[in-house]
Amino acid sequence: MAEKLLRVALKEDRAPQESSSPVESHELCLAQQLEMDASWLPVYHLEPEHVDVIRAFVSSPEKDEERKLKFLTSIAVLFRAATCNSLCQGLDLFCQRYKLAENIKVLLEEEPRDQLHTAVWRSAMFAMTEMSFVEAVLEGKEIGLLQACFSGIFLLPPKEEMQDLKPFLYFTTMKGMDTMLVALVLNSPTSRVNEKMQSIFQMLLTFTTSERASVRERAVGRMRVLSFLLANYSSLKADPNEERHASRAEMQMPIIGQLLGHLLLLLSFKEEETGHLALDALCLLFQFKYQQHCATLTEENTQLQGDWETETTSLRTSPSATHIIESFAEYLQPSERSDIVRVFIEAMTDSSTFDKEAARNVLDMVRGNPDLWLVDVPKITSCIHKTLGCIKSVPARQSVESLMVSMADKCPQEVVTTLLQVAPGGDSTALALWEAMFSVPQTVRNILKELLSQLWDLKSRLFCTHLEDYCLVRLAMLASRDLGDRAFAATYLDFRFLKEERPAMLSLVLRAIMTLSERDEMARKMKVILPDLMRVLLFGYKAATTKALLVFRTIMAQLERREASHIAVQMAEFLLPLLDDELSQLRESSISLFRDLMMMAVGNDKREMKNVVRLGLLPLFFRLSDQTQSVAKLKQDRRRAQEFLIQSLSYLKDAQASLREAAVRFIGLAARHLRNPSEKKLAEICSALQTLAEDREPSIRSLVAQTVIIILSSSREQPRPRWTLRALCCR
Predict the structure, then answer these.
(1) CA distance linking residue 359 with residue 603, whole number of Å
(2) Taking Cα atoms as reference points, which of 525, 538, 524, 617 lies closest to residue 570?
(3) Would you tell me how many other CB atoms lie within 10 Å of the CB of residue 454?
(4) Cα 494 → chain centroid
(5) What does the H/E/C string look like for 400-461?
(6) In this predicted model, what pLDDT tens digit does every residue of 117-161 receive, in sequence order?
(7) What is the pLDDT of residue 26?
(8) How far are the Cα atoms of 56, 554, 579, 656, 659 from residue 589, in angstroms, in the given order?
């Protein structure tokens, strides 16, 4: 009767004020009276003092350390007495009225985060442990309480940095957390065991990515405790009043793949206790998954015990991530394998604290067995698209992009469909992924075929701002058909997709053409695009220009010399501004192609080629001092030049010190060989040199001073014979 009346009183706080009958008013007054003295609780007669301590603490504004500990101890004692004596009736209402869970959470959040001086944390977790034995007392409040515990204790400084820390207090605090976690799981109804484990593991995972070793160690230690719980109970003890308990086969947790992935990455912290704890947890989870797998078999496995023990011994002997993941593979669900792959992809981001090399090794292993690991293509593709923009490291990007290529080879339709769905128009990450797939000959053909069918229907939503613009569709149509030379040329002239002026799209199209042109037969057909390739250089897009030069060189190599001669002269003239480009890769490609084109001119084109070459000699001479070795090496066969003194002045402003120094030396030699130079001309030269008088390189400042003196003194000497570039180089 008393419990019923108290429930009525509790509802009063939430219900709107309404007129009530005399009987109801009498019941409410009685309920409030019973509530005030709490004698209605069955357990009150066993522990009246502890009930009074709890009620007094909640109502008092003074909450010093002594009162906090008494409050928490009273909760633990009260609930233990109630459980042991089957006097739990009404405790849920008592907790609700006095907000015990909320008060505990407030106490935890008020504890200092830089030291562990008191037993408040330990006492609070012991109180929560005892409360978990009473049904519904903590329902809906566990997550908040656990988050407060984890945030407070895990983020404490390392043990060695906490002043006056008592080892026993630290040990019992961590032990109290472990006891609490086990109790929260085992005291959950069968229907909620999976959910409870899932929630706790999810919270713990957020701490495993911390940069602080102590935080990772504490979180992984709790993961090991829960893993032990999974591995060593054939059935989890749920509510003792329930007729059946959760079997191992029924323990399905969607988070298991993420959990395994993070633990595998944590193995790389071998110098820490974290790595050892992670290995323990992995072995326990392997035992759980192995036994769970065997429980689903129709025939009894009599060698079960020996088998998993042999396997776990092997894992401990060779605790590499690749070895362990291969051992787990056959016992995992497809979704769990996909989640592991996603974890390793995310570990490649720049902000990740995990070992990138370990992650790359696992992804390489995954690529070697795509049928087993790359089963959920949409999920993995979406993960790559979401993650790639956060990866700046070249090796890491290459590893993730290679994984994308492997999926594209395996399931081109799913990859194309997913990218078209998840990527908004103009998405730079998606374009980078398309380019990666367009870099592999077989892959680009498969992807273009798939794009041809899908983009035609979608009206090129991803790539084009205008519905009538189908540059990739046109490329796909051209590449997918088995056309002869004439038909290929006629089809391209109808499409002219290299006239595309958007940098990203043009670069992507050129990437596909580069790969397709690796086949000699296709390269010969592509001679029709050479005029448009030369026009690409006029757009001024660095990435597109570099690709265009490589394609041009490949196509020209397939032409007869007479056919290539006139085109070579035209292209050589286009290349002159690029010989001095600020981008070293573009300089190298330009100079390399320039050298090849020089050798292609025949007949009347030779004279015109010589005129073009003269214009390029001075840039080539200065690039002999290029700090990019591959660029400098390409110019060592240039032997002759005329007087380009004025042209050389621009190199005094070059960013590379070696080129500025070469320019000063060249100008000094050239000025000394000028025929009857005027004083004005010499003054202009010296004035230009003086701009380097304050150069940041001491050697250049000294050289400038010497050169100016030499030029001024040489002007009073007799004119010297005419000079050549070869003479200057040999001095």
Answers:
(1) 58
(2) 538
(3) 19
(4) 42
(5) HHHHHHHHHHHCHHHHHHHHHHHCCCCCHHHHHHHHHHCCCHHHHHHHHHHHHHHHHHHCCC
(6) 889 999 999 999 999 999 889 988 999 999 999 999 999 999 888
(7) 41
(8) 83, 12, 9, 19, 19
What is the tens place of the pLDDT at every residue in 410-435?
999 999 999 988 887 678 899 999 99
Alpha-carbon distances, residue 570 vs 139, 397, 524, 546, 587 (angstroms): 80, 38, 19, 18, 18
Q: Pick from 77, 109, 212: which is nearest to 157 by CA? A: 212
Distances in Å between the Cα of 206 and the Cα atoms of 151, 355, 364 are 10, 17, 26
> What type of residue sits at position 427?
D
Buried b (16+ CB within 10 A) or exposed e, 98-107: bebbebbbeb
537 and 548 Cβ atoms separated by less than 8 Å: yes
Burial 536-550 (b: 16+ CB within 10 A, else e): bbeeebbbbbbbbbb
Q: Which of 318, 207, 187, 300 is nearest to 259 (CA)?
A: 207
Which of 169-205 are b and which e, b meaning 16 or more Cβ less than 10 Å from the residue's Cβ?
Answer: ebebbbebbbbbbbbbbbbbbbebbbebbbbbbebbb
DSSP-derived letter for residue 719 is P
Helix (H) or strand (E) holding 48: helix 48-59
Would you say 91 and 43 are in contact if contact means Cβ atoms under 8 Å apart?
yes
Q: At CA 93, angle to CA 92 and CA 99, rounded to 5?
A: 90
What is residue 527's DSSP assignment?
G
**Contact in structure between 649 and 687 (CB atoms under 8 Å):** no
Contact 163, 146 (CB under 8 A): no
> What does the pLDDT look like over 601-657, one tens digit per residue?
888 888 888 778 767 766 666 555 555 555 445 444 333 333 456 667 777 888 888
Q: Is the pTM of this model over 0.90?
A: no
Distance separating alpha carbons of residues 475 and 455, to the nearest angstrom = 12
Task: Write the DSSP symbol of residue 583.
Answer: S
Dihedrals phi, psi of 468, to nearest 5 degrees: -80, -5
Structure tokens at 35: 């509530």
Of 170, 173, 276, whose CA–CA distance to 223 is shortest? 276
How distant, in Å, are the alpha carbons of 196, 247, 282, 372, 562 from that of 287?
21, 15, 9, 21, 73
Among 416, 408, 490, CA closest to 456 = 416
